[in-house]
Design a protein that fits this description.
365 residues; alpha/beta; seven-stranded parallel β-sheet; three-stranded antiparallel β-sheet; CofD
Length: 365
């Protein structure tokens, strides 16, 4: 399904223009893979001032091969972010960048965009310059940056793989962690104190809005909390911080996880981290006790909870138009009047919208 298939008659940005508010927020989205693609596809409906900060720990498929053979940053998630921000996501250049070679030869399994990024990085000698050059080719709305200039490795403590369920085994590598049949308890990065991309920390420091998630929780979302300078930037930025929860648990990595459990795990990895809002799909958490549990878990992050319909009907994918509308609603609400408010899990969606759905707009600077 194309981005055009989801497009509503009026986007949040167009509504802002009609209401006289033309100031686009500066938005930074953090994540990787399909989750970040969904966020970026939604974000470009709200603003043109977008920066994607992407995980760089992939070790599988085309990305893993290029990382191993060329010593470069794994390009796959970076390429997907560029494609999401391309001027025409269904145009020839964007489709070509996403095209994956078939067959059984040396190119089999490689994406064209991965190879282009590999070549640009060698010619220009700088992965960020390579990303900027490819962004120019695709005429992207915004910028794509790696979270670290160093390729990282994810290591996890996983239980349920031994006869004694209390015993954990160390699993190394993003693909291995994402597909483990056991229960992931904690993840680490190797090296343990990696540098952050200066451009990424600067973008976060100057952002109006920071969006974290959705995505693979242990391999695309939490890793941002494990890069010290990136985490410091996230803690000290004055931006409105929004955490978007996944619509469903993922087989292997988060099998059996509730929405509440996702929040607890993030808090365990970053106990001093706080966000302003947690955005949860209303269809994935039934009204009543489960929503109350989510609201209590969000208190560990000192966050409000907003329940909204953000899913494509009958799927576990975010609908770009619905997600854009929900994000626009959350990030534009007047902060001083709502300071300290918590949306209780027992409130029906209509009441959530009545609390958050005023016409008032705020200035971003």
């Amino acid at each position: 399904m194309t981005d055009a298939d989801h497009r509503d008659d009026t986007t949040p940005s167009e509504e802002s223009e009609k209401s006289g508010d033309s100031a686009d927020p500066t938005l930074v989205a953090l994540g990787g893979g399909h989750g970040l693609y969904a966020t970026l596809t939604a974000a470009r409906r709200i603003t043109e001032r977008i920066t994607a900060v992407v995980t760089v720990a992939d070790d599988g498929g085309s990305s893993g091969r290029l990382r191993s053979e060329l010593g470069m940053l794994p390009p796959g998630d970076l390429r997907m972010a560029l494609a999401a921000l391309a001027e025409d996501p269904e145009g020839t250049w964007a489709r070509t960048a996403q095209h994956r070679f078939g067959g059984t030869g040396a190119l089999a399994g490689h994406s064209v965009g991965n190879l282009v990024l590999a070549g640009l990085a060698e010619v220009l000698g700088d992965p960020v310059a390579a990303l900027d050059e490819m962004a120019a080719i695709l005429r992207c709305t915004g910028r794509v940056l790696p979270m670290s200039p160093t390729a990282l490795t994810i290591e996890a403590d996983v239980s349920g793989l031994e006869a004694d369920p209390r015993v954990s085994r160390c699993i190394r590598g993003q693909v291995a962690v994402a597909t483990t049949p056991g229960k992931v308890r904690r993840v680490r990065l190797i090296p343990s104190d990696p540098p952050a991309s200066p451009e990424a920390t600067s973008a976060i420091e100057h952002a109006d809005v920071v969006v974290l998630g959705p995505g693979s929780w242990f391999t695309s979302v939490i890793p941002h909390m494990l890069v010290p300078d990136l985490r410091a930037a996230l803690m000290h930025t004055r931006a409105v911080k929004v955490l978007v929860l996944n619509l469903a648990a993922e087989p292997g990595e988060t099998a059996g996880f509730s929405a509440e459990r996702h929040l607890h795990v993030l808090s365990q990895h970053a106990p001093d981290f706080a966000v302003d809002d947690v955005l949860v799909d209303s269809g994935s958490v039934p009204e009543g006790r489960e929503r109350e549990h989510v609201a209590r878990a969000a208190e560990q992050l000192r966050a409000r909870v907003t329940f909204a319909d953000v899913a494509e009907a009958g799927t576990d994918r975010h609908h770009p138009g619905k997600l854009a509308a929900a994000l626009d609603q959350v990030i534009r609400q007047p902060r001083p009047e709502l300071a300290g408010l918590r949306v209780e899990g027992r409130h029906p969606v209509q009441q959530v919208r009545s609390v958050l759905g005023g016409k008032e707009r705020v200035s971003w600077r």
